[in-house]
């Protein structure tokens, strides 16, 4: 693929990221408080599960894997929060 095409793809991605980020930060006002619960649980799951996986992979030490199940439970809780 032509290098200028990669520049265009990067530019579109950057514009989309900044535009959607500013809309989410300033323009989007969720009416349903469930989304805040979902977002909090999903963020906790990402930090606990994915962060643990990256830490174990980078440090090659499995003693840091104890938080992974809690991250998984946070993921399950996040998706379950959308049911109610």
Automatic annotation (TrEMBL):
Keyword Transmembrane assigned = yes
Question: Which Pfam families did the record assign?
Answer: DUF423 (PF04241)
Q: How does it sit in the membrane?
A: Multi-pass membrane protein
Q: Which UniProt keywords apply?
A: Membrane, Transmembrane, Transmembrane helix
Could you confirm whether the keyword NAD appears in this record? no
A single cellular component GO annotation: membrane
Transmembrane stretches, start-end: 40-59, 66-83
**Name under which the protein is recorded:** Uncharacterized protein
Task: Give the species this sequence originates from.
Answer: Salix dunnii
